[in-house]
TrEMBL record:
Lineage: Bacteria, Bacillati, Bacillota, Clostridia, Peptostreptococcales
Protein name listed in UniProt: D-galactose/methyl-galactoside binding periplasmic protein MglB
Classification via PROSITE patterns: PROKAR_LIPOPROTEIN
Sequence ranges assigned to domain Periplasmic binding protein in this UniProt record: 54-331
Compartments where found: Cell envelope
A matching Pfam family: Peripla_BP_4
Subunit structure: The ABC transporter complex is composed of one ATP-binding protein (MglA), two transmembrane proteins (MglC) and a solute-binding protein (MglB).
Keyword Metal-binding in annotation: yes
Signal peptide (from-to): 1-21
């Protein structure tokens, strides 16, 4: 009996230890990259450094990723300023919450890349209450005059018509130099499809309008086969191009894309059916905007025909200069080479054509 009791007690102790040491619940899955990358802190800065919060409409944008990397370089080289970055993930409500949270903390200036360009006044009204300087960038609001309701608000961006005009000039030059082969169905018209960034974005609207208008103003007859809002997204652009090719493969001469990401999506669709490779004569001309590294590589390989350079380093430098001045209580462009356009509140960064 004693032996049986001893065995039972030992068994009970082992069972108790096993239960006590074992996991009480299933381990949580690690956070995804998207979850861990909604906020980025810059390198530690010197004591007393001016803190600038940079709110992006989304990190997952190739051009804006380039701008962010350039800002990090500027930050690392300057101990007197400290940047932090937030990702609204394409949600204006989330960005509004980010603005509120930022303003409740210790911040000297804000740089805001709007999700919804119609929400500029909402953001201005929030920041105005705190009298913090505010610089919008890249995504121009529907009404630039809304900035004039707050004397500490400015804009850094491009002249939105310029990218469309330059893209149209690239297409014009391509058509005139290659008309015999570029006019694929021999109807004497430039038959095109257009990948649109979104109807809520002034730059997308201007690029779509002025690219085609520039070609038409040059006396070239055009025919629109299709237009699709692809929201700057490579995969959505590929899906649109897949559908157009299934219906009108023999008729499409040129692809206008509002950005390089969508241009690459179109190229991926073309390559999937044997077009736009170096070892094939089958080619549909594709033009984008941004001059990303992927686009430059595609142009060098002959699968893409041209793009318009949106200067990420120049954009970041202007943002940095204006934010640092304002955070230190100076006028935004004091001591710089920048000047305001006719609006009196906007600094414009010029585009440039990029082709092989």
């Amino acid at each position: 009996m004693k032996r049986l009791l001893t065995v039972g007690l030992v068994s009970a102790m082992i069972l108790s230890l096993a239960v006590g040491c074992g996991p009480k619940k299933e381990a949580e899955a690690p956070a995804t990259e998207a979850e861990t990358q909604t906020e980025e802190a810059a390198q530690p800065a010197a004591e007393g450094a001016k803190k600038v919060e940079v709110l992006f409409y989304q990190f997952n944008d190739t051009y804006l990723s380039m701008v962010r990397e350039e800002l990090k370089k500027l930050d690392e080289a300057d101990p007197e300023i400290e940047f932090s970055f937030q990702d609204a993930q394409g949600d204006q409500g989330k960005q509004n919450d980010e603005v509120d949270a930022t303003l409740s903390g210790n911040v000297d200036a804000l740089l805001v890349n709007l999700v919804d360009t119609g929400a500029a006044q909402v953001v201005i009204d929030k920041v105005k209450e705190t009298e913090k300087p505010l610089v919008f960038f890249n995504r121009e609001p529907d009404n630039i005059d809304s900035y004039k309701t707050y004397d500490k608000a400015r804009f850094v961006g491009t002249q939105i018509e310029e990218a469309g005009v330059m893209q149209g000039e690239l297409v014009k030059a391509y058509w005139e130099a290659n008309k015999e082969t570029a006019d694929r169905n021999k109807n004497g018209k430039l038959d095109y499809v257009l990948l649109h960034g979104g109807l809520d974005n002034a730059e997308a609207i201007a690029r779509s309008e002025y690219s085609v208008k520039t070609v038409m103003d040059a006396g070239i007859e055009v025919n629109k086969i299709g237009e699709q809002i692809a929201l700057w997204d490579t995969e959505k652009a590929k899906q649109a191009m897949d559908a157009w090719l299934a219906k009108d493969e023999a008729n499409i001469d040129v692809v206008f894309a509002n950005n390089d990401g969508m241009a690459i999506g179109a190229i991926n669709a073309l390559k999937a059916i044997g077009y736009n490779d170096a070892d094939t004569s089958k080619h549909v001309a594709v033009f984008g905007v941004d001059a990303t590294e992927e686009a430059k590589a595609a142009i060098a390989a002959g699968s893409m025909d041209g793009t318009v350079m949106q200067d990420a380093p120049a954009m970041a430098k202007a943002m940095y200069d204006l934010a640092k001045n304002a955070a230190n209580g100076k006028e935004f462009i004091e001591g710089t080479d920048y000047s305001y356009d006719a609006s009196g509140v906007a600094v414009r960064i010029p585009y440039a054509k990029y082709e092989q």
